[in-house]
Amino acid sequence: MNKIAGVLLLISVSCFGQQNQDIEKLIHNLFLAMKNTDPVLMKSAFAENAVLQTITKDGTVKNENIEDFITSVSKFSKGDLEEKIRIEAIHTDGNLASVFTPYSFYLKGKFSHCGANSFQLVKQNNEWKIQYIIDTRRKDNCKEIQ
């Protein structure tokens, strides 16, 4: 009986680890696409009706269209935009995942601002996609992420 429980535990830990790797890869690919100004890779990270929002300094929530975001990023040269992140938490339940990532943003190699991203992902057709991102942006009290 103990051997069966051990095998089941090992299988579940292995699946959970792979799931987290897939989620991390998707998020890292989004920022790689931004850095490389790759609109195809960027678009592939998002679910069809994804939502992108920013919380402004006064607490207002600003909506941004995903297509407009991709178009604006694509206007930069490769390497102009770099967002360095640290994945602090991944929580999953079935086809839902939540990921929190503090970040430092660099424009043309110079520090611009910092904040945090909160991602909600959905698993569709056996593939993780970003359904929702909300972020904060500030220039003060920043700890740059290396």
Description:
This protein is an alpha+beta fold. The protein has a single domain, classed as Nuclear Transport Factor 2, Chain: A, CATH 3.10.450. Helix content is 34%, strand content 42%. It contains 3 helices and 7 strands. Strands 1, 2, 3, 4, 5, 6 and 7 form a 7-stranded mixed sheet that branches. The N and C termini lie far apart (47 Å). Mean pLDDT is 90; it is low at 5-16. This is Lumazine-binding. It holds the Pfam family Lumazine_bd_2. InterPro entries: FrzH/put_lumazine-bd, NTF2-like_dom_sf.
Number of strands: 7
Number of domains: 1
Strand content: 35-45%
CATH class: Alpha Beta
CATH architectural arrangement: Roll
Helical proportion? Answer: 25-40%
> End-to-end distance, in Å?
47 Å
Supply the helix-strand structural class. Answer: alpha+beta
Query: Unreliable runs, pLDDT <50, ≥5 residues?
Result: 5-16
Largest sheet: 7 strands, mixed
